[in-house]
């Protein structure tokens, strides 16, 4: 089955002008408009996501360092 958009109708000549390309363009334009309308609904962006990941990594690193310091202090007390 072939789909096309009606681009003109001539009653005098009893002809219909059809275009497959115009149908495709219309679909692309609709997709683009939909993208633009839905784009505003995004709740985060790449910068925010990276910032959150970096903060989590920094917290985990800090916590690991703190635990290592506590372990070192406990070892020193046991040796004394």
Query: What share of residues are in beta strands?
Result: 5-15%
Number of domains: 2
Broad structural category: alpha+beta
Termini Cα gap: 88 Å
Question: Percent helix among the residues?
Answer: 55-70%
The major beta sheet can be summarized as: 2 strands, antiparallel
Q: Could you report the average pLDDT, rounded to the nearest whole number? A: 85
What's the helix count? 2
Contiguous low-pLDDT stretches (5 residues minimum) are none
Instruction: Give helix and strand order, one letter per element, not per position.
Output: EEHH
Computed Rg: 32 Å
Dominant shape: rod-shaped
User: In what order do the strands lie side by side in the largest sheet?
Assistant: 1-2
DSSP summary, beta strand count: 2
Topology, pairings included?
Layout: E1 5-10, E2 15-19, H1 20-39, H2 46-79
Antiparallel strand pairs: 1-2
Structure notes:
The chain folds into 2 domains: 1-42; 44-80. The chain is 68% helix and 14% strand. It is built from 2 helices and 2 strands, in the order E-E-H-H. It has helices at residues 20-39, 46-79, and strands at residues 5-10, 15-19. Strands 1-2 form a two-stranded antiparallel ribbon. Strand 1 (5-10) and strand 2 (15-19) form a beta hairpin. The longest helix is centred in the last third of the chain and has 34 residues, at 46-79. It starts with a strand and ends with a helix.
Keywords:
80 residues; alpha+beta; 2 domains; two-stranded antiparallel sheet
């Amino acid at each position: 089955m072939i789909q096309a958009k009606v681009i003109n109708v001539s009653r005098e000549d009893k002809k219909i002008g059809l275009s497959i390309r115009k149908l495709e363009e219309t679909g692309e334009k609709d997709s683009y408009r939909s993208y633009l309308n839905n784009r505003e609904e995004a709740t985060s962006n790449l910068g925010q996501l990276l910032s959150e990941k970096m903060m989590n990594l920094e917290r985990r690193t800090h916590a690991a360092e703190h635990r290592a310091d506590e372990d070192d202090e406990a070892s020193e007390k046991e040796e004394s």
